[in-house]
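Lecture 7, part B: from sequences to assemblies.

Below are the input chains for today's worked example.
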Amino acid sequence: MVYWLFLVSCGIAIFAALMAITRLNASHALIYLVITLLALAVVFFLLGAPFAAALQIVIYAGAIVVLFLFVVMMLNLGRRSVERERQWLLPGIWVIPSILAGGLFIVLGIALIGAENQAMIEGEMIGPRRVGAAMIGPYVLGVELAGILLLAGLVGAYHLGRRYLDERRER
Amino acid sequence: MFDLNWSYVLILPMILGALVGALMLVWWERRVLGWFQDRLGPNRVGWFGVLQALADAIKLLTKDDWVPPFGDRILFILAPIVVAGAMLMTFVVIPLDAGLIIADTNIALLWFLAMSSLAVYGVLLGGLASNNKYALLGGLRAAAQMVTYEVFMGLSLLGVVMLAGSFSLKEVVEAQEDMWFCIPQCVGLVIFVIAGLAETHRLPFDLPEAEHELTAGFHTEYSGMKFGLIMAGEYLALILVSALIVLLFFGGWLGPGFLPGFVWFGIKVVLVINFFILLRAAIPRPRYDQLMSLGWKILLPLSLLNILVTGAVVLWIST
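Predicted structure of the full complex, as structure tokens:
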């Protein structure tokens, strides 16, 4: 039962990812991206990582893609942009990315066939407490580096907004 | 990992109860608002107007199901489903009593945050798909407001999580055996109430649908049962936020023993809902920039400070 759920959500994730790449309408592509992320969250959950699954929805689906959609709304893309996308995305463009992705897929397949991957789906659940302990324990350096990166982004955003506000004040 | 047990029996009553509750809440809110404002409110259909909500629902169902030809048809239909669906999904983790819960997971609070962040899509897509400038502006406002307030809605919960030592709502309630968390976490409670108001975009924070500037905001183009679903989603969100306030800060089903737990839970939820209705009647709507600066400049530092102090106190007591 769990195995079938796993396969179904994997299939949905792959299908939605393909649709997200090939859609011409930006907002439709983003909706497919959200579906991919939700399907991945289900995969995480079935692999025994409920905490990662919840964060996947909260952060990726709930915050980051919302901001993408926000930008799409601000640009107010209409039918003209769909036409432009159609001119840009000619069938010939897909050849090289397909070859590269196919190569990666074969490598991944070989790696997975070699590994012992059957037991993973039936593994135990890892709760938020253990994830937190790992974050503060062995991975503390990574967490702090990510914090510095975010701080840099915050300062940059503040700087850009600041210049805009100063200009408005002078007027 | 998945054990089929009797809690699956609860799913249907929970969904029906939530939807009927949302329906009744429309009537109840109009009644109570009428009382607050010294007028009658709906009192003709059924006893004291109880059936008013049913009459409204029948009216909405018989209306022409219109989809704007200039908009995006699929997204337009998807949006109300997302709004109501995400809210209904959250009821899965709400415990009504010690044993009355559909899914007692250890990520219940994160699940609530995840689903409320998915509800943003309903509003955003509604605004985008309508292809109408009022709807677009309303959708943009709603998304900015909800994403902003989600941040410290999550942060304000962390104090409770630290005191209880768990994300599970059941364990959070059980940790309040001695003292309700509304006393040690009073700052968290205030922030959560404000964030909950903004998240459900109800008055006084209903700027996404402010009538005097945006007609009806993101649902300007909606009519019939699609509008009904959006409205149901908003009332479901109100019930949900009230239930969470009760569970997190007012001891959930805990109470003197002469009444069963879920009765206490129901009484507390109704009281909190009435408080929200009173807020609607009492407070005028702020300006949009005031709402955003209140969020980022006051509530965010306050909630971070709350986490810091709570963490320090928890550490101090435990050592």
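Note for the exam: The mean pLDDT of chain B is 82. Keep this in mind when comparing with the next example.
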